[in-house]
Amino acid sequence: MRTRIKICCIASKDEADQAIAAGADALGLVAKMPSGPGPISDAEIAALTTQIPPPIASFLLTAERTAEAIADHVARTGPTVVQIVSHIDPRESAALAARLPKVQRVQVIHVESPEALALMPVYAPHIHAFLLDSGRPNAAIPELGGTGRAHDWKVSTAFVKASPKPVFLAGGLTAGNVGDAIRQIRPFGVDLCSGVRTAGRLDPAKLGAFVAAVRRADGG
């Protein structure tokens, strides 16, 4: 199976075009966050979602925590996928599924320990996919993505094997390690922000090298 590629922290139409031309399957648009790189305004996200052509998926990364607030955020910005970056109350996850039955919903799981595996059955009935990342949601200033850190891939491997839903892998991926990650973990897709950027800007050389490394790991 071909590993899907999601390029996150897209900040402009030019960056979107670069990522798509390089082979991205999905683009991440980061809304207001308590910390981390790449946030843009809701107005900028809304403008970009109208310009991202199918079949490329547009992911809204939202830090909202209630079904009502998340649904309102989606309505304002128009993505095809909403990525919920906090470990929200499972009752809100269920309510969101009822509110947004036609929008793909991806739940982020921050892998801080093997206890992350216990969150799988909590969210799986209400979502379309998981995304494993390296945030620290309970830190004094919550980290909800974009850390550039890898987490324990042994936990990620166990999660992917057990998950009833597709799983994206994020957290410290680069052209240098993504091949090993794919071969070990076998995720549905890979996702990164800082690994294809230089001084905060999308780097065409790093982007091309990353996509090439993914395709080599896929056997292409």
Structural summary, described in words:
It is built from eight helices and ten strands. By secondary structure, the protein is α/β, with parallel strands linked by helices. Helix content is 35%, strand content 19%. The strands form two sheets. Strands 1-2-3-4-5-6-7-8 form an eight-stranded parallel barrel, surrounded by four helices. The chain has one domain (4-218): Aldolase class I (TIM Barrel).
Give a short summary of the structure.
This protein is an alpha/beta fold and 220 residues long. Helices cover 35% and strands 19% of the residues.
Rg (CA only): 16 Å
What is the tally of helical segments?
A: 8
Q: Report the CATH superfamily.
A: Aldolase class I
The coarse overall form would be globular
Average of per-residue pLDDT values: 93
Could you estimate the helical fraction of the residues in percent?
Answer: 25-40%
Corresponding CATH architecture: Alpha-Beta Barrel
Question: How are the strands of the biggest sheet laid out side by side?
Answer: 1-2-3-4-5-6-7-8
Instruction: Please identify the structural class as seen in this structure.
Output: alpha/beta
Low-pLDDT regions: none
Q: What's the order of the H and E elements?
A: EHEHEHEHEHEHEHEEEH
The tally of beta strands, per DSSP, is 10
- The end-to-end span amounts to 11 Å
The CATH topology is given as TIM Barrel
Supply the CATH class.
Alpha Beta
Share of residues in strands: 15-25%
Structural domains: how many: 1
Largest sheet: 8 strands, parallel, barrel
